[in-house]
Write a structure and sequence with these properties.
The complex is a heterodimer of chains A (298) and B (181). Chain A is of the alpha+beta class and 298 residues long. Chain A is built from four helices and twelve strands; from the N terminus they run H-H-H-E-E-E-E-E-E-E-E-E-E-E-E-H. Chain A has a six-stranded antiparallel beta barrel. Chain A is globular. The N and C termini of chain A lie far apart (86 Å). Chain B is mainly α. The radius of gyration of chain B is 20 Å and the shape is elongated. The chains are: A alpha+beta (298), B mainly alpha (181). Chains A and B meet through helix 1, helix 2 and strand 1 of A and helix 1, helix 3, helix 4, helix 5 and helix 6 of B.
């Protein structure tokens, strides 16, 4: 009797395997189709469950490592203190200048009757987990939909852009780095208005390097120039620093430049990040249907 | 009882996979759930191994930037292949299990990479380097884990071999010198 039941199990196994493989494949195909816009229930709930494990582990390990780091950094604390005091004085002066400029800017905007744009709050988040698969580099942060985080919100550090929120659970969110293959940011070489070198910064799969595409070969660009977001991709607001040009393969009148960019944010050693509670400005109907359309005059 | 032990081991493996990379980056190269799935498959309980493969794979995928279901697919396939192999070949010796876990790790990586490549989501980094490190890390840790699990669970290998393969009839060998005489 026991022998027969074992044979039944062996007979049943291939069918179970086929069913499970099919289930996984359908899941994959569905995920691949809407990877940038869809929200998966399985992801959301697993991330919520994982938060109860990841948060305590991260708290314990980071407090232990911080303890040792603080001991080692005590030596240089006094020198650093005097340097920082000097820096604070310099920054206070700069801040005063910036405040004057901001006030002037808002006055001019109101004169031009432009709506206020680019205002967003920054939500500080701690990285509590890294991608469990060695093949990818996403991170899990301890802020979720209960904190107001939604899909595709930009994530930054003090250095620059880190990436965007790719999945949200009530307590945590998953962040895809800008170095991921297939990612893209609308960007410009130099500040907007100063340069016409518009293009798209895309991930290469290498954590140290990005590629800027579609910059016209006629425009002069230099190694060392900084790259900023343009705000035209409906994810990132304008003016965020993306990186710095490290290599240029010059194009011609018919071919674009090939530009290599080093990310401004230190992606290897992130402990905390800022999630920009930013939603892009609503596009008008004619802009959505015809992106390059000229606004009709009333 | 063995099922409960293995389930606990699998949960621990998934939790380790979720957390250890944030503690120390090289831990990412060790595939803890795969080690337990292959161990379960080597116990010749194919259904348990296959279900373990799917569940642990999806649990890892849910927190990963990769495709949801890719790990589930590869681990289910590995669990089936290893359990079929273990049904036909005697693999209860630890030395024989080392190439099995190494082969399973390599195949798992190849299937995972291939699926992402097929569906237009190529993973980051150098595939050959990642696979090599993963192979080394998972094989070493897998061998140690099997050593522990073998001592903790189930009957001893000799006893299991007796259960699996019926014992041969023992005949007394005749001494040819005596026969001649």
């Amino acid at each position: 009797m026991a022998e027969r039941s074992q044979k039944d199990v062996w007979r049943m196994t291939p069918w179970l395997v086929i069913a499970l493989l099919l289930f996984n494949f359908v899941l994959m195909a569905f995920d691949a189709r809407e990877i940038s816009s869809g929200q998966r229930v399985i992801r959301a709930w697993t991330q919520t469950a994982a938060d109860f494990v990841q948060s305590p582990v991260t708290t314990i390990t980071s407090s232990i490592s911080n303890y040792f780091i603080s001991i080692s950094s005590l030596r240089s604390a006094q020198d650093e203190n005097s340097l920082l005091a000097q820096r604070v004085r310099e920054l206070e002066v700069q801040l005063q200048q910036k405040q004057d400029l901001a006030a002037e800017n808002s006055r001019l905007l109101s004169l031009l009757d432009l709506k206020e744009r680019g205002r967003y709050k920054v939500l500080t988040a701690r990285i509590i987990g890294r991608d469990p698969s060695v093949w990818f580099d996403s991170s899990i942060v301890n802020r979720g939909s209960l904190d107001g985080v939604t899909l595709n919100m930009p994530v930054v550090t003090e250095g620059g852009v880190v990436g965007r929120v790719s999945a949200v659970s009530p307590l945590t969110s998953q962040v895809d780095l800008l170095t991921r293959k297939g990612s893209g940011i609308g960007a410009v070489v130099g500040q907007i208005g100063e340069s016409g070198a518009l293009g798209v910064v895309a991930g290469t799969g290498d954590k140290e390097l990005l590629e800027m595409k579609y910059v016209s070969g006629n425009i002069d660009v230099q190694v060392g120039q900084e790259i900023f977001t343009t705000g035209q991709d409906d994810i990132y607001p304008a003016g965020l620093k993306v990186g710095e040009i490290v290599e240029i393969v010059s194009g011609s009148a018919t071919t674009p430049h090939k530009i290599r960019v080093r990310p401004a944010a230190g992606l290897n050693a992130m402990q905390e990040v800022g999630i920009l509670l930013y939603s892009p400005p609503e596009r008008l109907e004619y802009e959505r249907t015809l992106p390059n359309a000229v606004r009709p005059k009333n | 009882m063995e099922g409960v032990r293995l389930t606990v081991a699998l949960i621990v493996a998934v939790v380790l996979q979720w957390t250890l990379r944030n503690v120390f980056e090289p831990f990412a190269y060790i595939d803890f759930p795969l080690i337990i799935v292959v161990f379960a498959a080597l116990q010749r309980n194919s259904i348990r191994a296959i279900v373990f493969g799917t569940l642990s794979g999806i649990a890892v995928d849910a927190l990963s930037g990769g495709l949801l279901g890719a790990n589930g697919f590869s681990k289910t396939l590995i669990a089936y292949l290893v359990s079929e192999m273990a049904r036909r070949v005697y693999l209860d010796n630890l030395l024989l299990r080392i190439p099995v876990i190494a082969g399973a790790c390599l195949l798992d990586d190849l299937v995972y990479y291939g699926l992402h490549w097929l569906l237009g989501q190529p993973p980051v980094g150098d595939a050959l380097v990642t696979m090599s490190y993963s192979l080394i890390g998972t094989t070493i840790v897998g061998t140690l884990v099997y050593l522990i699990l073998q001592n903790l669970s189930g009957p001893r290998p000799k006893q299991r071999r007796r259960e699996m393969f019926s014992s041969r009839r023992q005949t007394r060998r005749r001494n040819p010198i005596r026969l001649n005489r």
